[in-house]
Task: structure prediction
Amino acid sequence: MNLKELFTEDRGVSPVIGVILMVAITVILAAVIGAFVLGLGDQASSSAPQASFDYNFNGEDSVNITHGGGDSIDNSTIDVTIGNEDILDSGDDVADTDEYTVDRNWPESISTGNSLDISVEGATPSQNGDTVRVIWNNPSGGSSNTLSERTWP
Result:
């Protein structure tokens, strides 16, 4: 083997490695562009608000839910459920069911100190061990998150 020839070799990177690198760069660019074209980039940036809710249960017949602190939340993105029943669907002004009555609705923008009164008429959520949930629905579509929940005592 001639060492002089080895050090004077002027060929670059193998063509195979060059092709592999070009394919990898093309695939990565296509994935990034595809994610933004399909709107996946917007949904990833919409995260659930951080808020706390206080629950004041008045025996077996009513509950008061108060926004205790954190982010303000648009009323149109909030659901309230007791057990498996929707009490207040996103954006509803008044919510009455056969078993529950909402006495006072949250304002359009729910912030610290705003409260919601729910009265029970005939239902027994305390005996059933029902859970009261405040659920946030992503306005961009897709996921929903339970912001707060409490089991009826």
In short: The chain has two domains: 13-44, 51-151. The chain is about 25% helix and 35% strand. The CA atoms of residues 99 and 121 lie 5 Å apart. The beta strands are 51-58, 62-70, 73-74, 78-82, 85-88, 100-104, 109-110, 115-120, 131-137, 144-151.
